[in-house]
Amino acid sequence: MARRVYIETFGCQMNAVDSARMLTLLGTADYRPAESLSDADLVLLNTCSIREKADQKIYSALGRLRRWKREREGRLVAVGGCLAQQEGTALRKRASHIDIVFGTHSIAFLPDLVRLAEGQGAPVSTDLTGDTSHWDVLPYLADGAVSAMVTIMQGCDNDCAYCIVPHVRGPEISRPSREILNEIRELAERGVREVVLLGQNVNSYGKKEGEIPFPELLRRISRIRNILRIRFITSNPRDLDRETIRLFSEIESLCPHVHLPIQAGSERVLSSMGRGYTREEYFGKVEDLRKARPGIAFSSDFIVGFPGETEADFQDTLSVMEEVRFDSSFSFRFSPRAGTRGAAMAETVSKEEASDRLTRLQTLQARHSRDRFAACVGKEVEVLVEGKSAKDPDRLCGRTPCYKTVNFSPVTEGQEAVRRVRIRSAGHHSLSGEEGGPRG
Ligand code: SAH
Ligand code: SF4
Ligand code: F3S
Question: What is the pTM of this model?
Answer without folding.
Answer: 0.94
